[in-house]
Amino acid sequence: MNDYLKSTPNKDGFFGDYGGAMLPPPLVPHFKEIVEAYETLSNSPEFIEELRYIRKHFQGRPTPISYLKNLSEKCGGAKIYAKREDLNHTGAHKLNHCMAEGLLAKHMGKTKLIAETGAGQHGVALATAAAYFGMECEIHMGEVDIKKEYPNVVRMKLLGATVIPVSEGAKTLKEAVDSAFGSYIGQADHALFGIGSVVGPHPFPMMVRDFQSIVGIESREQFEEMTGGLPDVVAACVGGGSNAMGLFAGFIDDEDVALYGVEPLGTSSKLGDHAATLTYGQDGDIHGFHTKLLMDENGDPAPVNTLASGLDYPGVGPEHAHLQKIGRVTYTTADDKESLAAFYELSRLEGIIPALESAHAVAFAMREAKNHSGKSILLNLSGRGDKDLDFVVDTYGFGE
């Protein structure tokens, strides 16, 4: 593990000014137990070996890097490459941390996994982990997302999970997190809350990043083997930010590699029309940690909007807020229109149907290619678009 990852966050879970753990008193001992278990197990050769076995023989890792030749030629300028997390078992990067969280829960003697989900990929991945380890699974999902991402709801139920519809507020990801936390408080003795991104109270932002860092570690080795050097630009979509932190982890100490996080601009820059937290947010607290936050006039988390359910969160991982503040990562945006166009282009030109979340990173690469002539862009294709097909075709048609 490189220097930055070894030294960040500090022992209290702060990435500079962001992070920490603001917990209701009943959860304090349970999170202390999780911290202690992770510190012990992350240094255990047996735990690491078991996780490596799972990644190779169950998940199908390593996932490849693909050179997107046709897309690169159409865009002109940079060569565009994709880390193919869509080929990870269950179709996205989420299983990287879910299998590890399941393994952690097993070693802690827990019998149940609880989580929230937006696009459903985290829910599917955690339900998969629960089935693998013989545990119960409870997934909280907003009613809007249940309708929009119904194929993933079916998958979760087939895998044995109980899906809890959430009807409060905007009925999307924030409310699903609220609901899952409320349920977890009463079951913390025998359950682990498998938080779905680099968000939440310490140790989850650190722990999920570490589990996802396999994406960046593989990418660095693979890209050097393919090209003889490192990419000039590395990019990933950012909602909570787990796929981005996973990829960035492999290049964070390489100053010559420019890192870009791509947030969802939705339909406009007006508050309520987007979910671009780092671009338009301010410092605040949400779900037990301090970060950048989109807030309304009362200081409450603002409504957010994006066609990608996995990105519709009014906060962001505290490490992303820190990396923006210190200038190591540049955060930019892609709107619904650009991302939808990228969804169709990648499908037609490369035979790869991306998740709408990942399409934001594809849109960025397509837009930026002309500004990086002769250079390389590596994006994280964090998931495949199977879950989005019905929604896209019913709403927008075939893009013709």
List the helices and strands and how they pair.
Layout: H1 3-7, E1 14-15, E2 18-19, H2 28-41, H3 45-59, E3 65-67, H4 69-75, E4 79-84, H5 95-108, E5 112-117, H6 121-133, E6 136-142, H7 143-148, H8 150-158, E7 162-166, H9 173-185, E8 191-193, H10 204-227, E9 233-237, H11 242-248, E10 258-266, H12 277-280, E11 282-286, E12 289-293, H13 318-325, E13 329-335, H14 336-350, H15 356-368, E14 376-381, H16 389-396
Parallel strand pairs: 4-14, 5-6, 5-8, 6-7, 9-10, 9-14, 10-13
Antiparallel strand pairs: 1-2, 3-4, 11-12
Helix pairs in contact: 3-5, 5-6, 5-10, 6-8, 10-11, 14-15
The total count of helices amounts to 16
What would CATH call the architecture of the largest domain? 3-Layer(aba) Sandwich
Q: Mean pLDDT, rounded to whole units?
A: 96
List the uncertain runs.
Answer: none
Q: How many DSSP E strands?
A: 14
Q: Which radius of gyration do the C-alpha atoms yield?
A: 19 Å
User: How far apart are the termini?
Assistant: 46 Å
User: What helical percentage do the residues reach?
Assistant: 40-55%
**Class computed from helices, strands and strand pairing:** alpha/beta
Q: What is the highest CATH level, the class of the largest domain?
A: Alpha Beta
Q: Provide the number of structural domains.
A: 2
CATH topology value of the largest domain:
Rossmann fold
Our estimate of the beta-strand percent is 15-25%
Series of secondary-structure elements, N-terminal to C-terminal: HEEHHEHEHEHEHHEHEHEHEHEEHEHHEH
Q: Give the neighbour order of strands across the main sheet.
A: 3-4-14-9-10-13
Largest sheet composition: 6 strands, mixed
Shape field: globular
